[in-house]
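user:
I keep going back and forth on a fold encoding question. Separate attempts, laid side by side, tell us more than any discussion would. Would you put together a sequence-and-structure record for a protein of your own picking? Write it directly below this note and I will take it from there.

assistant:
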Amino acid sequence: MKKVTIRVPATTANLGPGFDAFGCALGLYTDVTFEETDCGLEITGCPEEFTGPDNLVYESYCAVLNTMSEEVRGIKIHIDAHIPICRGLGSSAALLVAGAMGANVLRGNKLSTQGLLNITNAMEGHPDNLAPAFFGGLTASMVDNGLPVSVNFPLHPDWEFVALIPDFDLPTTLARSVLPEQISRADAIYNVSHGALVLKALELGDEKLLRTAMQDRLHQKYRKKLIPDYEKIEALVRTTGAGFCLSGAGPTLLCITRSPRLKEVLAKKLDSITEKNWQMLPLHVEFQGAHIVAMEE
């Protein structure tokens, strides 16, 4: 029986004005091991309530097999997740990507990565986290006639990403529920223009341009009300000149800088200005995306 372990990176989506479009893979990972058996389903490494057939890994695994018209046989799945759940770092996308890639590898890699993205996007509903999890690096994505289209953008090598992860979660459903159904033309223009400049600033390594361009009017001003300490942390980060935004739907906050001063300031002052506990986690960009780390025939 074949056995394979898939590693999928964490992802941060939106990057300020790139709502539901921009995403970047980061150096924090979920490893999922798949081992085919004669029959049955066994899932380990996660809370008991997630060990049934509604587990995201298994749902994605089955979706890919069904697309290939392959029989769903027995499977053992072990999840070793280091991406925190409901923190805006792509934990659910990582599980979907792992399930899809695991099924594809075990059955002879019949589908392309784009094919796997198509399947998982139909499950997730938007490709902003899925695309960088599959392809690595910085991506921008859209959906055209029901199918995701994604491209990679260059990143200047000197950027440092620092995630500020709180000790509370924020379900994506709640984060989406506070968003307005309609926006003004002015706000739409604001985000399109700022989003274009974010991509150029990240390519050039231009911290001043990034700090200005990462402003947003579509989601952050509504979601920040769900996150204690948001405005105090934003004010502190901006004193260092770093770019600042929500990571995905939050509550993790993302800082992007080329200066070592950011980590020094956060280490000295973050605890004194906040009411919640925040973990400061420096992360590098992961350019490889989802990949095999072990395989046995």
Remarks:
- Residues 160-283 form a domain with the Alpha-Beta Plaits fold (CATH 3.30.70.890).
